[in-house]
Structure formats: C-alpha cells, structure tokens
Amino acid sequence: MCRKNLNDIWVLKTSQAGPFTWRKIEPKGTLPEPRHGHSATVCDNNIIYYGGKGNGSKRFFSDLFVFNTITETWFFPELEGTRPTPRYYHSSLVLDKGSEFVIFGGIRPKEFL
Are 36 and 57 in contact (CB under 8 A)? Predict the structure, then answer.
C-alpha cells in the first residue's frame, strides 16, 4: 500500500439551511510541503500550522506557517529566537487573546534525542 501526504484544504459550510456543503479551497501564496502529524490552531481569522512529518521516514518539520481564512492565502511569518526541535503528533493552542502560541509534546526524530 502506497501512502501519500496531502496539502489540500477543504471547508465544510455549516451555517446554511439544508445540507452541509463541502468546497475545496484553491489557496493563494506558497503552499507548505505535504505532511501529517502537524498541529493546526485557530487564531482569529487565521489557522496556525506547526511541524509534522513529510513523505518518507526522514522528513520532519519545525516550520510554522499560517493560512488566512478570509483571503484564503498561505503565508510564512518572520520568526525570531531559538526554534523548537522538529516534531509531529504534538498539540498546540493559542493563549492570551492570540498573543501566544504554545506547542507541547509530540514525537521527534532520533537525531534530535
């Protein structure tokens, strides 16, 4: 069985009369590499994505990227400070009215143990 990570985005319209409706988004901007095991956290009109594991057994990510749900655009914010080690299957959340983004736990590759 061949498995492949995806990087497509779908939205389910739930605030309408009648059946819920799926729509595939055709985002603008630079798409992140396909992955699984990343975190996705809502902050205002944005979804913050962090980390994950790519196709193949040796692709681990420590990148952070944002999807704006209003403009349907990906962007990579400028970051400072020491970056956490690459990881996947971690959790994340936003604190203090969106002023802090926290990641916790997860699995990291052997080379970072």
Answer: no
Three-state SS at 87: coil
pLDDT digits (tens, 9 = 90+) for 82-104: 999 999 999 999 998 878 999 99
Helix, strand, coil % in the chain, rounded to nearest 5? 5, 45, 50
Taking alpha carbons only, the member of 51, 50, 30, 37 closest to residue 94 is 50
Q: Give the amino acid at 96.
A: D
For residue 8, is it within any domain?
no
Please name the residue ranges forming H helices in the chain.
Answer: none
Q: In terms of residue numbers, what domain contains 67?
A: 27-112
Task: Report how far residue 54's alpha carbon sits from residue 81's, in angstroms, rounded to the nearest whole number.
Answer: 24
| Mean pLDDT, rounded, of the chain | 91
Whether 17 is in a domain gets the answer: no
In a domain, residue 52? The reply is yes
Total count of domains within the chain: 1
Q: Global pTM?
A: 0.88
Residue 1 — very low, low, confident or very high, per pLDDT cuts 50/70/90?
low
